[in-house]
User: Which sequence fits this backbone?
């Protein structure tokens, strides 16, 4: 023991710190230098990062079973990883340091290069560094692993998306105006078979099938229509958080609005979100931090109070006032109940049996605070969140998502948080066909026009061509099929408008006479919805 005195001291320190963090809220951590000043937190992150890197990557530690390994070393690794995960999760809500401080440069890059197939990439998930401390690996690298796993699995199920080697898919009829209802009837029963190619046949209001063959674009349109309806708070399946974030979380009153079928609806939406991830489709909805924790399958009850800040900052501030109140808590006349507005009717819900008869005192106020936070971020939405998660995991394996934090998972779902399109990246990874090249005068004019668009217009253009208004998380290099501009020859500017084949991410751009005409015609098409075309 004397020879390992440094390791013993570090073990005791990290265990005490982990315990202290349990009762430390984000305000205390960031503004009151509790339990440590920010510069010491950053130094600790550096020390523990090196320890975990050596244990997981150099010494190839085996956490599962001791195999004769040093018990002190395993205890130190366990305590260090727990403390680092807690700090990283807190940093994901409000940064404790610059992002690169967490990372080990180029970690796993060489391992990815050596992988050739689905089994190789899945084996990476079993590496100690991804099981214990995935935050040491860059987010971009982990995104690559996820993308390669999904792509290889999708090819094994569906065949290649080249029109020649594609396997037959599942055909479903969807009536416009009944997107959610028909999707629920035809798709929800597929379960894990949603990984197969889904061929959507749209029918108009009279039951007649619309012309065209779906090669992927109509499913993207179906998902866009479905998400617009189901994630709309007015539909009563989801609510939005208070403040400016407007993040979605399950509506605690969804069962009252939709009956018992609401649970089935959440399972279905989880499966459809899984299908979107499986097909590489980015979507617009932003989800609340605590709801994303459910999707990862590892909700941490120690983070209930910080999660409450993302749901209701006013309630959080009131609980913090109670926590730091110097007077007698009984003066506030609180009991172990919460009040909820249930469709205009105020209801008192006990937090413990006979909670209405137990007053909050200085002795039990911390217990009360924890129960209130648990009620709002967990108890009220457990049924809906677990149903949504079951559906998601039918399509996307749970282990594929565990390597991401909550904000990272949101990027996986929706692309970059600001939603801005990197035009340089888009231009670099665009292909040309039909006679166009990157040096063509019309292409030069096109990119000049697109660069002059505002963010909303650029998003409308991307949606017009791909059915998705947000770029892929890994950038346009990962878009499949790639963004393509196809030449359409015309004699006069008024002959044709720009059209799109969303199945193949192709913009069909006529050879207009000037940059002004390109801008006018392009804006007309992307803002009027004209030009959806199946090839």
Assistant:
């Amino acid at each position: 023991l004397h020879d390992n005195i440094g390791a013993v001291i570090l073990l005791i320190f990290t265990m005490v710190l982990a315990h202290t963090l349990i009762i430390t809220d984000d305000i205390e951590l960031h503004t009151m230098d509790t339990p440590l000043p920010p510069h010491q937190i950053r130094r600790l992150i550096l020390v523990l990062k090196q320890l975990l890197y050596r244990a997981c990557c150099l010494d190839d530690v085996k956490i599962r079973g001791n195999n004769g390994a040093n018990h002190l070393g395993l205890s130190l690794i366990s305590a260090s990883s727990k403390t680092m995960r807690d700090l990283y999760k807190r940093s994901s809500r409000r940064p404790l340091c610059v992002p690169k401080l967490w990372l080990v440069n180029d970690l796993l890059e060489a391992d990815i290069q050596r992988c050739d197939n689905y089994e190789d990439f899945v084996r990476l998930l079993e590496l100690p560094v991804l099981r214990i401390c995935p935050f040491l690996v860059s987010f971009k690298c982990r995104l690559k692993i996820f993308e390669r796993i999904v792509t290889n699995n999708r090819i094994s199920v569906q065949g290649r998306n080249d029109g020649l080697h594609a396997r037959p898919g599942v055909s479903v009829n969807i009536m416009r105006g009944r997107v959610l209802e028909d999707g629920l009837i035809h798709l929800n029963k597929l379960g894990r078979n949603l990984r197969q190619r889904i061929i959507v046949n749209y029918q108009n209001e009279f039951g007649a099938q619309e012309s065209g063959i779906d090669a992927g674009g109509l499913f993207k349109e179906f998902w866009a229509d479905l998400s617009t309806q189901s994630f709309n708070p007015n539909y009563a399946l989801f609510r939005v958080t208070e403040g400016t974030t407007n993040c979605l979380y399950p509506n605690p009153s969804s069962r009252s609005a939709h009956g018992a079928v609401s649970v089935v609806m959440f399972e279905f939406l989880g499966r459809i979100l899984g299908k979107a991830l499986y097909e590489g489709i980015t979507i617009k909805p932003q989800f609340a931090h605590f709801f994303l924790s459910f999707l990862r399958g590892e909700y941490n009850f120690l983070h209930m109070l910080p999660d409450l800040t993302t749901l209701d900052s006013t309630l959080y501030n009131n609980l913090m006032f109670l926590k730091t109140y110097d007077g007698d808590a009984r003066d506030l006349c609180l009991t172990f109940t919460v009040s909820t507005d249930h469709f205009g009717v105020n209801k008192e819900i006990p937090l413990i049996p006979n909670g209405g008869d137990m007053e909050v005192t200085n002795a039990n106020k911390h217990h009360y605070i924890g129960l209130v936070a648990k009620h709002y971020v967990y108890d009220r939405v457990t049924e809906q969140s677990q149903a949504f998660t079951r559906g998601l995991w039918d399509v996307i394996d749970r282990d594929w998502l565990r390597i991401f934090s909550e904000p990272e998972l949101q990027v996986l779902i929706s692309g970059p948080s600001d939603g801005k399109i990197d035009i340089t990246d888009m231009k670099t990874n665009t292909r040309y066909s039909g006679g166009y090249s990157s040096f063509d005068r019309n292409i030069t004019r096109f990119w000049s026009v697109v660069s002059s668009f505002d963010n909303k217009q650029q998003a409308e253009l991307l949606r017009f061509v791909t059915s998705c208004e947000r770029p892929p998380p890994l950038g346009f290099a990962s878009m499949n099929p790639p963004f393509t501009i196809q030449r359409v020859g015309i004699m006069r500017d008024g002959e044709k408008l720009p059209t799109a084949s969303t199945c193949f991410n192709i913009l069909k751009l006529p050879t207009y006479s000037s940059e002004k005409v390109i801008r006018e015609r392009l804006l007309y098409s992307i803002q009027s919805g004209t030009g959806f075309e199946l090839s």
Summary: Residues 233 and 239 are 5 Å apart (CA to CA). The chain has 23 helices and ten strands. The radius of gyration is 26 Å.
